[in-house]
Amino acid sequence: MQDIQQRLQQLENILRRELMLHIKDLSKTTEVAHISMDTSLGQVIDYLSKVKLVDTEIFTKLMKLDAAHCQLELGLYGLCSDCEMDIEPPRLIADPTEQRCTHCEQRYRREHRHELRLNH
């Protein structure tokens, strides 16, 4: 459990640094709110929603990270959000914010193919 928390914290630090660079670039063209490394994850997500950055990869990663934190607190970490079975350990090792088992991820991608194409 502590290892999972450490991995999630490391990922959060990386994403926050990436976000700080993105905000710095954004601040050259528009006024932005003050977001720091200490700003809560929920506030960061709210901010990204307000400045219409929800279609960015970093927003998606932060949402998955927030979900993983919540699942960890609730004792549901590692369970598929669709079928509630265990997510395969190699998937969680590769991405500690993974939300679906392999089977459900494949089904999700098939069902949302059209949406995925529209985003590229």
From TrEMBL:
Keywords attached to this entry: Metal-binding, Zinc, Zinc-finger
Zinc fingers (dksA C4-type), renumbered ranges: 80-104
Residue span, Zinc finger DksA/TraR C4-type domain: 75-109
Alphabetized GO MF terms: zinc ion binding
PROSITE patterns attached to this UniProt entry: ZF_DKSA_1, ZF_DKSA_2
Protein name listed in UniProt: TraR/DksA family transcriptional regulator
